[in-house]
Amino acid sequence: FYLESLDKTYTPDFYLPKLDVWIEVKGFWQNQSEAKWVEFCKSYNNALLFKCDIEKLENGESLENKINYVQ
Hints:
Layout: E1 2-3, E2 8-9, E3 14-16, E4 21-26, H1 31-43, E5 47-52, H2 54-58, E6 67-70
Parallel strand pairs: 4-5
Antiparallel strand pairs: 1-2, 3-4, 5-6
């Protein structure tokens, strides 16, 4: 996707065609990544963000209850 306001392109991680939903999975944000996500959501309100606590996973903790949905 071309984000005209940023003069950048962006590609979400997944698209689920049966649900018509775009998915992005993040462990941490870089400034440019967050700006692209915000711009993408302005045009596509069928987008979901899942944020994962990478530090806890790197320390060997379980994935259970470590992934949060952010709208």
